[in-house]
Design brief:
heterodimer; A: alpha+beta; 13-stranded antiparallel β-sheet; 5 helices
């Protein structure tokens, strides 16, 4: 027998007493609104309650189906990873809600929201406004965080691709000046021009963990517009008037202007060189494939040689 | 001859592009930047490709 600690919350949430058997199979409960009642657990999904009668239910991937006295049960709740978007299902239909630290705001039925602060819980119409405020704050903070990490991750990806392309070019040079001569067994040509590739970076691409620099990237992303604004302001005030026709500096481009220009430039490049995109990608894949094959065949031949040497030693 | 080569290499390029696209979405998923909307992203990209064609 065990008494459940429901008087823990301060200030006290509700007047309720619960007593369970050791395996929680038999339960006794007394509360302000529902009086005294007892219940027996009959199996995994079935209970019998003196007040509510027999009830059986089963939950499959968030969807609850069941039977009880006076009707059926149909419920469902599916959330994304941070509970910012929940899809709720009841007999009256679907609804969307957003959870924050202090409660949940229901977008389709605002009067079905909840809000809890310092142990005091509000539900329904009274909770809607505060729940809405905190839902908006939660969404805004998550959105900013998401944007920061999205940009940081993509900057990291671009650095990674840049390193990878450099590597690819080195490999390509290696292929032409080292591997092909080796492949055609012209050792004298290789021996006179031995070149070693830089080995600072690990061979495996996964081990080149650039996640370390995320904080720096985010800091730069926050600092750059501020610094830009600061220096642009300085320039606007103090720059000598020499650039424009009338001797003025002209309009200083804003950050949005630069982005727009880059966007237009990329569009133009796509229009001019777009048809060669897949061609380039295909040629690169083919070269990579050849490179892989040559590496593999050289490895094979060296293995054969080593096995022959060991055989000769033996 | 040039046209055949162009088409052949472009075909390899399209296959490589689809492969890279799948890798990109997988990477986004591994970074936790999708938040359980992987299928929606695939559908969006698919629709974008369709609308361009």
């Amino acid at each position: 027998m065990k008494f459940l600690k429901i008087f823990k919350g301060r200030p006290l949430k509700r007047a309720e007493v619960k007593v369970h058997s050791d395996d929680s199979k038999y339960r006794l409960r007394a509360s302000r609104t529902s009086g005294v009642n007892a219940s027996v657990k009959l199996g995994r999904n079935a209970t019998y309650n003196t007040k509510h009668g027999f009830r059986v239910s089963k939950t499959i991937k968030g969807l609850t189906l069941g039977l009880r006295r006076g009707g059926t049960i149909l419920r469902g709740r599916w959330s994304n990873s941070n509970n910012l978007l929940n899809l709720n299902l009841s007999k009256s239909g679907f609804s969307f809600s957003t959870s924050s630290r202090f409660g949940t705001f229901n977008w389709t039925k605002p009067n079905y929201s909840s809000f809890k602060l310092a142990g005091i819980q509000l539900r329904g119409k009274k909770a809607a406004k505060s729940a809405f405020l905190f839902a908006i704050i939660a969404i805004a903070s998550e959105f900013i965080k998401y944007c920061a990490y999205f940009i940081a991750a993509h900057v990291r990806l671009l650095i990674f691709i840049f390193i990878w392309v450099l590597d690819f070019l080195l490999e390509f040079i290696h292929l032409i000046f080292v591997d092909f001569p080796l492949f055609f067994n012209k050792k004298s040509m290789v021996q006179n021009h031995i070149a070693t590739l830089p080995s600072d970076l690990s061979e495996k691409l996964e081990e080149r963990n650039l996640k370390l620099y995320d904080d720096v990237i985010i800091l730069i992303l926050i600092l750059f517009p501020i610094l830009f604004a600061f220096f642009a302001g300085l320039l606007e005030g103090y720059a000598p008037k020499v650039f424009s026709e009338d001797g003025t500096f002209g309009q200083i481009p804003t950050f949005v202007d630069i982005i727009e220009r880059i966007y237009l430039w990329i569009n133009l490049q796509i229009i001019i060189y777009g048809k060669y995109f897949f061609l380039l990608l295909g040629s690169m894949s083919l070269i990579l494939l050849i490179n892989k094959y040559v590496d593999w065949s050289i490895e094979q031949s060296s293995q054969d040689k080593s096995t022959m040497e060991t055989k000769a030693d033996g | 001859m040039g046209e055949i080569l162009y088409n052949l290499l472009s075909a390899i390029g399209i296959i490589a592009f689809i492969f890279l696209l799948i890798q990109y979405v997988r990477w986004l998923n591994a970074e936790g930047l999708l938040g359980g909307i992987k299928l929606a992203i695939y559908a969006f990209i698919f629709l974008m490709i369709l609308s361009n064609v």
